[in-house]
Amino acid sequence: MTTNRTFTMIKPDAVESGNIGNIIQAITDAGFKIVAMKYTKLSTQEAKDFYAVHAERPFYLELVDYMTSGPIVAAILEKENAVADFRKLIGSTDPAEAEEGTIRKLYAESKAKNAVHGSDSDENARIEGDFHFQPDHCFA
Ligand code: ATP
Ligand code: MG
Question: What domains are defined for the chain?
């Protein structure tokens, strides 16, 4: 299993606020290589499936509504220690608690509309990457 990859989405709020470019720049400046990338919009079923682990959480339907409210950028990223380093780069779920200079501190609106997704484990990075990309659309 590849353990040097993570999966990210630039979420609808950050697309809407015009921060796709700033966020991709921050990601590449931090040393991540783009393995795959696309501009797309999640269907309700795709968002429900993607966030199925949160199905029992009170914010699940709000989260699905939000993630389908506009287009997103999905990407697979590669770097040594990718999952942990990317979570560090994006900062805490709630931008109010995120460290200075993190992507969420800079660009997120709120705990719900928090600009970016980052996988929380190597296993989920692989599952989430496979959810969005065929192997022949990945360029290592
Ligand atoms: P992500 O998985 O998107 O990288 P995360 O791992 O920091 O974020 P999770 O606990 O996995 O946070 O929550 C998934 C997403 O659900 C959050 O990024 C946010 O958009 C939304 N969310 C989390 N907690 C809340 C909440 N209390 N109210 C509303 N939305 C929430
Ligand atoms: Mg998460």
Answer: 5-137 (3.30.70.141)
